[in-house]
Write a structure and sequence with these properties.
The chain has 262 residues and is an alpha/beta fold. It is built from eight helices and eleven strands. A seven-stranded mixed sheet has the order 3-2-1-4-7-5-8, with helices on both faces. A two-stranded parallel ribbon has the order 6-9.
Length: 262
């Protein structure tokens, strides 16, 4: 029913606790779920940690992505998923997984994508970023509005989609860096998909891979490239179809149908 992709680059230390909390949250949903860890060419024991996870109600599988970049790692996991709904969260679990129930409910009710946002007025954010990074985030959001207009923030690592919508966004993905979310959401938005932005509980976990000095300028360059790329492909993007699909029978044993974009 739900597949959660976790991109991991040298996350051997954090993964045991992350997998424990994430699997517990998914088990509480009461539907079949899976965690897919994508090892992004790690040089530590990330793969060994995942390979030795004990069996449980929520299985964990390991995939390999040799091309460095968070976006490329998430793409591998998404395109390998056969679940009805698929999404991703960060290996540091900065966004608490307690919102997964709300995510699943919104997707079942007809949302095409559910986007966690620290900019949501109901979000609880514990931030320890430097002044430089906070000002950089403001400038970045301003640049992103030229590409994605339907959500207030694109960079929170907590996004979930109907499988077919995810495939249409990730299959042609070209940006593998930290701005990959912008390209994904830009493609989803241009296809006419219904995006729902939700509040999150987010904590600034030490050890972030993002460096304002090393990655900041590249993210702005990537957004400019994404904007140019999507302008060229706008005419070729077909809208997400809306059809009636069968769902589980209701309590009266009648065949139920729901208008969704399957």
């Amino acid at each position: 029913m739900l597949d959660v992709v976790v991109p991991a680059f040298n996350e051997a230390e954090r993964l045991p606790a992350t997998l424990l909390l994430l699997r517990a949250a998914l088990a509480n949903l009461g539907v079949p779920c899976r965690v897919t860890v994508v090892d992004n060419a790690s040089t530590d024991g990330t793969a060994e940690v995942v390979s030795t996870v004990l069996p449980g109600t929520v299985p964990v599988r390991l995939l390999w992505c040799g091309e460095r970049g968070k976006g490329f790692a998430v793409r591998i996991g998404v395109l390998a998923s056969d679940a009805r709904y698929v999404g991703f969260c960060d290996a540091d679990l900065a966004t608490a997984p307690d919102n997964l129930g709300q995510v699943l409910s919104l997707l079942v009710e007809g949302a095409d994508a559910v986007v966690g946002s620290r900019a949501h007025p109901e979000s609880v954010v514990e931030e320890r970023h430097s002044l430089l990074r906070r000002w950089g985030a403001v400038a970045f959001r301003s640049a992103v509005r030229q590409v994605v207009r339907g959500v207030g923030e694109t960079q929170c690592g907590f996004k979930f989609f109907r499988n077919d919508v995810a495939r249409r966004a990730f299959a042609p993905l070209r940006c593998g860096g930290f701005a990959f979310d912008v390209e994904v959401l830009g493609r989803v938005e241009r296809a006419g998909a219904r995006l729902v932005e939700i509040p999150v509980n987010w904590v600034d976990v030490p050890g972030s891979r993002f460096s304002p000095v090393r990655h900041g300028w590249q993210s702005f360059v990537d957004v400019a490239k994404i904007r140019w790329r999507l302008r060229r492909t706008d005419a070729a993007i077909l809208p997400v179809p809306v059809v009636a699909i069968p769902v589980a029978p209701d309590v009266t044993s009648g065949a139920a149908t729901v208008g969704l974009r399957p």
